[in-house]
Here is the input.
Amino acid sequence: MRTSGSPDTADIVIVGGGIAGLAAAVGLAEHRAGSILLLEQESEPGRHSTARNASLLLQHTEDPIAARLAMASRPFYAELAAGEAARFRPVGSLLLFSGSNAIGTGHARVAAARELGLDVEQLTPGAAARRVPILDASRFQSAAFCASDGVIEIGATVHALTRRAERAGITIRCGVHVDAIMTAGDRVTGVATTVGPMTAGLVVIAAGAAASPLGTTIGAPLPLRVTRRHLAVTEPWNAVDASWPFVWDLDAGFYFRPETGGLMLCPCDVVDAPDGDIGVRPETVAATREMVARLIPSARDLSIANAWAGLRTLTPDDRFVIGPDPRLAGLAWLVGLGGHGMAGGPAAGQMLAQLLTGASKTVVEPATVGVSRFLA
Here is the structure.
């Protein structure tokens, strides 16, 4: 991996080396789009939002756009795992429904997923609890199981994708911070960085939480909201089976999955963090423990072994932004991945490559994820 020195010019510069930026680089290389330079401000790719999430491949999600991107990403993960020793475990997902119309809601979600082509099974509380015995079946009224969902081993996946990018001739430079997008007239000419200017005819902003300031400085802002979310892992517990699916209580806004002999927990907090602060908030960890005590009573005495926070960048409609910016020639975006970055990032990167190289067919309708929806 190149970390310093030339080149200082390329046909395409990609700002951001997370899972989506790497996937876009590989996709552009496969489409023979020209020389590609990927810039990552951390010491190696995938160190920020990519590395600080729950590693879930969730296809059974309510938004059909996110679902289609996740479904298109799954073969990528399966193929990468088989070919390069990255791990993807298809343990499945178990969604829990409660409330006055839980059974009807569950039925509607299952029906919608099946229309998209997902194999999803609606379960009674008892059947769900047999799959994950620590669940209290009296605390929800219906459940849905999607066998093809799973858990991604992030580190191995990023390393495998990085190797693939390098084999494709992509130059990756780490420890390089992009200070600004350079322009001349109505088009992009490159980027200004901490190691000097780098020229390019096309710049892709795939910088996650750092994306918004780059657009604002050149008069091309997007309504991106940077938020913080916590994760925690408990001490090991002999009741945990690593083969369990991940479990998401939709009414409570809480999910968990097996991790290193214990449980990984998420309270699904969404707190604005425009300054990029990922410091752990003790009150959020305490609230997570309260959720555990309420939803998994048998786990109430487990201690938290580790907790951390990561950043999610959201859009007003909670959908990705994928594609060229009509306001400035040579500028493209791959941002707003929110909580679906690992699930849909590979397909989003591939879709961007298709859009930039003139492919006639994409996974989702380009207008549904395009920049123009925010410019009316």
Observations:
- Confidence is low (pLDDT under 50) at residues 1-5.
- The longest strand covers residues 304-314.
- The radius of gyration is 21 Å.
- The chain has two domains: 12-51+155-224+317-374, 90-148+225-314.
